[in-house]
From TrEMBL:
Pfam families: TruB_C_2 (PF16198), TruB_N (PF01509). This is tRNA pseudouridine synthase B. It catalyses: uridine(55) in tRNA = pseudouridine(55) in tRNA. Responsible for synthesis of pseudouridine from uracil-55 in the psi GC loop of transfer RNAs. NCBIfam families: TruB (TIGR00431). SUPFAM superfamilies: Pseudouridine synthase (SSF55120).
Length: 304
């Protein structure tokens, strides 16, 4: 059994918890997730099985989509609702929708972020959350991310007990912290803020409609139909350029051969496919102009 199993991650589980549960339920050792989701976050979590673990990084590095909720009036240690309140300033006004939309649009494009202390980013060999739990604040490396699309989701803004909340959708690059984005939105509106809810609605080419819950997976396993929930690894790299190759060339590709650059070569990492099946990912050779070399060989002659 191999391919990609898109799980709809429930609240309260880490991404590693999901991997462990899939590994145990399907009886597969080679299992890997494609990008960490915080325990409080629900949504799309593609899990790679068997040979598909070779392409996990391509799903991880692809764009993500989220629906989130910003709450103005309080900021927290974790930048989401699970943390302790560090600042509180009650909101006395309902902002016009145009003002909120204007602020959201100001984040479109390239964006500099500093990862939150409660995150898995490593500094000097330790995760930031390890420092945070010990009460230590360290200097964090700034990162550049990209916001492709962002918009207000609802035509209503809720103000209750001095806290103002609104929902938004965002399409963004790998490495974007939506928690931090929520805080930045609050800063532009002049209030402390945190992310009060978050759902990942898409990861690479996988969307909510592709996913199964653990309850649904359990029923499929009991019926002997678990394979129905698994997509071929090709779907995980469908966002990359593809090039169809001949039978003769496919033999060389499966052996990991360095090849002359084909005509109409895209110039980026490209999937070489034989009879619609991805067998390798190639890129320009860094030391041999006019030639290409394998980045990942997905199918060798031995396993055909």
């Amino acid at each position: 059994m191999e391919g990609i199993l898109p799980i709809w991650k429930p609240k309260g589980m880490t991404s590693h918890d999901c991997v462990y549960k899939v590994r145990k339920r399907l009886g597969i050792k080679k299992v890997g997730h494609t990008g960490t989701l915080d325990p409080d976050v629900t949504g799309v979590l593609p899990i790679c099985l068997g040979r598909a673990t070779k392409i996990a990084e391509y799903i991880t590095n692809a764009g993500k989509e989220y629906e989130g909720e910003v709450t103005l009036g309080t900021s927290t240690t974790t930048e989401d609702s699970s943390g302790d309140i560090v600042e509180k300033r009650l909101v006395q006004e309902i902002f016009p929708l145009e003002r909120i939309e204007e602020v959201l649009q100001s984040f479109k494009g390239e964006l500099k972020q500093i990862p939150p202390m409660y995150s898995a980013v490593k500094v000097k060999g330790k995760r930031l959350y390890e420092y945070a739990r010990a009460g230590i604040t360290v200097e964090r490396p700034e990162r550049t991310v990209y916001i492709y699309h962002i918009q207000l989701l609802e035509n209503a803004v809720e103000l209750q007990d001095g806290l103002l909340s609104f929902r938004f959708s965002v399409q963004c690059s790998k490495g974007t912290y939506i928690r931090t984005l929520a805080v930045m939105i609050g800063e532009k509106l002049g209030y402390p803020a945190h992310m009060s809810d978050l759902v990942r609605t898409a990861s690479a080419s996988f969307r909510e409609d592709d996913c199964v819950t653990f309850e649904e997976l359990e029923k499929l396993v009991q019926a002997g139909k678990a394979a129905e929930a698994i997509f071929p690894l090709e779907k995980g790299i469908s966002h990359l350029p593809h090039l169809a190759i001949s039978d003769k060339l496919a033999i060389k590709v499966r052996n990991g051969a360095v090849l002359p650059e084909p005509e109409h070569w895209p110039g980026d990492e490209t999937v070489l496919a034989h009879k619609s099946k991805a067998i390798a990912i190639y890129k320009n050779h860094p030391e041999k102009p006019g030639q290409i070399k394998p980045v990942k060989v997905l199918e060798t002659n031995e396993i055909r």
